[in-house]
Design brief:
Blueprint lengths: L1 H9 L4 H40 L3 H51 L11 H28 L4 H22 L5 H10 L1 H15 L8 H23 L6
Helix pairs in contact: 1-8, 2-3, 3-4, 3-8, 4-5, 5-6, 5-7, 5-8, 7-8
């Protein structure tokens, strides 16, 4: 795991990865700014509507606007921390994961035959699936995070570790393994896949840096997958008498 993560970070300096990194940074920044702009507009419209409904004027109107703005800002920061990693991972992985995999394989696994060419619609669908599952489940669990606040980090990282491990592993594995065997391989090495997903979830929590984490995660999981595939292949070869 440590070697796989070190190689994944080393991939960031690879010339083949730089263009993808800049495209990722641009897309993530635009996505985050769009979400914030929509949130600011919604909060402003909501505050104005609440003032009109309550008939607040003067000092009370200003106080209400300030309270709504403060509450909305805190909620926006919290939601961004909880939801943005899943949004970025889903969209960016769906668009760029194959390019990242090709760069990693060219550098570390030059002897591999060409991977199955994944149609753009399929890759984007996998990314949107990751987005929907991650964001949807975290929204459902949001009340639980608030109720069991002291345990919220354990719940959050446990759930997202499982999701990121499963989805990234399947997106990587399906390029070189028949889909019917991907689930068997993941279940056979469930502990390692979960731990890899937990590492990804922890990295996703780091502000600013999490913009490029989907690329690191793809490279990291590719190394994990190749290691597990080699181990499974070796285990299937009978020992000589």
């Amino acid at each position: 795991m440590v070697s796989a993560l070190s190689k994944a970070f080393g991939q960031l300096s690879d010339p083949a990865s730089r263009r993808v990194i800049w495209m990722t940074l641009s897309l993530s920044a635009a996505l985050l700014l769009m979400v914030w702009a929509l949130a600011v507009w919604g909060l402003s419209a909501g505050a104005a509507g609440l003032q009109a409904w309550l008939g607040a004027e003067g000092f009370w109107a200003s106080l209400l606007e300030w309270l709504v703005g403060l509450g909305g800002f805190v909620a926006l920061l919290f939601a961004s921390a909880i939801l943005f990693p899943g949004v970025a991972a889903g969209i960016i992985s769906g668009l760029f994961i194959d390019r990242v995999c090709q760069a990693v394989e060219a550098r570390h696994y030059p002897g591999l035959p060409p991977a199955r060419e994944q149609p753009f619609a399929e890759a984007l669908g996998d990314g949107l699936k990751l987005l929907a599952v991650t964001v949807g489940l975290n929204l459902l669990l949001l009340p639980l995070y608030l109720i069991v606040a002291p345990l919220a980090p354990f719940v959050f990282f446990g759930v997202n570790g499982y999701l990121f491990g499963r989805e990234y592993f399947e997106m990587i594995a399906v390029r070189r393994t028949p889909s019917r065997q991907v689930r068997d391989l993941r279940q056979q090495h469930g502990g390692k896949v979960f731990f890899a997903g937990l590492v990804i979830a922890l990295l996703m929590w780091i502000p600013i840096f999490n913009i490029i984490v989907p690329l690191v995660a793809a490279a990291f999981m590719l190394h994990v997958f190749e290691g597990l595939r080699d181990k499974s292949a070796g285990a299937s070869i009978p020992s000589p008498a």
